[in-house]
Amino acid sequence: QVQLAESGGGLVQTGGSLRLSCALFGRIFTNYFMGWFRQAPGKEREFVAAITWNLDTTYYADSVKGRFTISRDNAKNAVYLQMNSLKPEDTAVYYCAARLGVMTPNRATIYSNYDYWGQGTQVTVSS
User: Fold this and answer.
1) Is the CB of residue 76 less than 8 Å from the CB of residue 21?
2) From the first residue on, what is the mean pLDDT of each consecutive set of 10 residues in the chain (127 residues)?
3) Of the residues 18, 41, 55, 91, which has the maximum number of CB atoms within 10 A of its CB?
4) Degrees (nearest 5) of the Cα angle 95, 14, 42?
5) Rounded distance, CA 90 to CA 47, Å?
6) pLDDT of residue 46
7) pLDDT the model gives residue 35
8) What phi and psi values does residue 113 have, to the nearest 5 degrees?
9) Given its phi and psi angles, is residue 112 left (phi above 0), alpha (psi -120 to 50 degrees) or beta?
10) Long-range contact pairs involving 46-49 (C-beta distance under 8 Å, separation at least 24)
């Protein structure tokens, strides 16, 4: 059984930064493709960023490219999302997701392709 636990959300002003963390429990972390999604009230869950198991490839939504950075530490079974230059439209619940194995870039952006999800952490950006 795989469990994911996010942390690091909170309230920040426009232009500020936050770092989200996600820990994976229960399996060998290096086998998993990791992603971040977010969901704002009344909207569908949307892709934010993803990273391959061997760290050689990252993917970003156009809306966060250049502002957010995804990384992982396989020794700590953790994946991170560094969020800079935050905007009010970044306000959402952020979810960590995992999938065993590999995915193509197009498949990585679709939330139904992930096997495991965390409970989410709220990020609120005030204007």
Assistant:
1) no
2) 93 98 84 93 96 84 97 91 98 96 89 95 97
3) 18
4) 45
5) 12
6) 97
7) 96
8) -85, -5
9) alpha
10) 47/108, 47/109, 47/110, 47/111, 48/81, 48/94, 49/81
Q: Where does residue 124 rank: exposed (0-12), middle (13-18), buried (19+ CB within 10 A)?
A: middle
The confidence score (pLDDT) of residue 55 equals 66
**Mind giving me the DSSP string for 52-71?**
-TTSS-EEE-TTTTTTEEEE
Half-sphere exposure of 75 (CA within 13 A, CB side): 0
Any residues with CB less than 8 A from the CB of 75 and at least 6 apart, and which?
A: none
Would you state the pLDDT for residue 123? 98
